[in-house]
Amino acid sequence: MKLTWKIWLLIFVLIFSFLLILGLPPKFLRKGVLITSVDSNSTAFQAGLRQGQIITQIDNKKIKNLDDLTSAIKDKYSSGEKQKTIFQTTEKEIILFSNNTPKITVSLIPKTNIKTGLDLSGGARALVKAKNKTLSSSEIRDLVDVLSNRFDVYGIKDMNILPVSDLSGDNYVLIEIAGATPKDLEELVSQQGKFEAKIGNDTVFIGGNQDITSVCRNDASCSGIRTCQKNPKSGGYFCNFQFSVFLSQGAANRQANLTKDLEINHSSDGDYLSKKLDLYVDDNYLSSLSISEGLKGVATTQVSISGSGAGETQQEAFKATEAEMHRLQTILITGSLPYKLDIVKLDTISPTLGKEFVHSILLAGLIAILAVSIVIFIRYKKVKSSLAMIITSLSEIVIILGVASFIKWNLDLPSIAGILASIGTGVDDQIVILDEARQKIFLSLKQKLKRAFAIVLGAYFTSLVALIPLMWAGAGLLKGFAITTIIGISVGVFITRPAFSDMVNMIED
How far apart are CA 350 and CA 348, in angstroms? Predict the structure, then answer.
């Protein structure tokens, strides 16, 4: 039996989808523990430990799971004396000297590339909007940047902050934090916060419009990455950025008074004042910026801010530097929250309930597919037709999960409902194809299948038009349902339905 190119296309897409889901090499074969967060002010961070790294060995002891990690560092730091710890990751060896247990959080390595949303992983979700103010699209994006930077200060890494809107045009921010309680999230959102820039213990300016009149962001003449070069010490690359900040006259005068007696340090990276401009959010240290020697004792309203970023390759260094520049620009524009926020909706999600629900709904889906296949067998008296339907339906699930892994989409409960909905429409289309193929009319089988596919295509475009508004309905909370359903029905129309038609053609001939 010769397979058609449509069936071969389905086979190729299935194999590719499995690779996207499982990874190459497969993730379930990896040993070690995954670092989920590192305190940015800790010695562990300074030594080189980063979120996303996989620890495979500590002090010559293999680390396969969380128990191995606990055993490797248990009682090691109880004496309070500085200890040397050698971390072997999948990327490199990191040596840490510390008196205390490393300030990192870890988890088991995910078995697949499928990302789950808060509904399944557990945590807290808040839908917020500005109090007594309607925000534009650009203002809501700035608010998202400010919230992201603000939560970074508190060491919160496993979060998702998105701008969303409803069908009436109102803009909101959706905040999801894994492992947090609603009370934790409410406290973080309800406090507007405070941004300060200091030289030593003296405040030069604070965030917002009071001291900062403008920050250059999109003009290459006053903002951008200036140089990128290889680091002779580490072997990697580093890039330097520079952008201008425009201060009020009062802030400029304070800056002049605080810098007039500072010394100038000369280095290969440039000439800067002996003290840096330290940034704080809610009295928590965030980062430091070098001050150019030309600003010593000068009441200028234009300040040149510079910094750098590094990476293994020049491209990685460029991206890291660009991200750091954008982060600092956002902080300087509105370091503290620019608006008081109202929490429109606040939820807590139990990961246990989420997983139980998923198991139940997937089991129900498989039972439904088998039940439909049995009905098809009773109706058409052909085992091959039932098997073709099962293979096609399961193929659609695998391909949808493969696409979700590729685009790094977080699968939540609405997304899973969307998968089931697309499978349901797929079964309807397959029944149409089977019925048309068995119609006793004076048409060839090929013509009958073309007629069936025309019906399927009409239903596809109708469903697509109906689903698009759901991307914004309910302030974006149904976006997962819309996206996975659109992916599912698109995969069906362009890949699985044509392959199923060829299968039916081979069965009925």
Answer: 7
